[in-house]
Design brief:
The chain is of the alpha/beta class. 43% of the residues lie in helices and 16% in strands. The protein has 4 helices and 4 strands, in the order βαβαβαβα. Strands 3-2-1-4 form a 4-stranded parallel beta sheet, with helices on both faces. Strand 1, helix 1 and strand 2 form a beta-alpha-beta unit. Helix 1 packs across helix 2. The longest helix has 19 residues.
Length: 122
Amino acid sequence: MDARPVVVGYHDRKDSREALAWAADEAAAWGRPLQVLFAANYPGMITPPGSSIELEPGALDAANEVTTRGVAEALALQLDLAVSGRTEVTSPTRALMEASEDAALLVIGSRGYGPLLGTLLG
């Protein structure tokens, strides 16, 4: 059996919660596990070697909490679904690209821009 998960990019905002609900439904329909992925790399999450950036107390814990909320929300939507969480300290783009290599399906939400702002920003 192919156990590749449905992976959903999650950041605890309306558009990603909608993507999470859709991904949970798809994972359940396909009989696949769901992996909730949160990725961020803002200053203070890690301290690069030779950097003067200081580690921000609680930054990584806060990121893990976002992932935990996503997992809990998915489980509330699909009680029998196998759900795991993954927090990556890297750019969201990189994390999603890498996760897609082993995923049956990659689900992401919109950026949350309305039609006017979306047109202006691309």
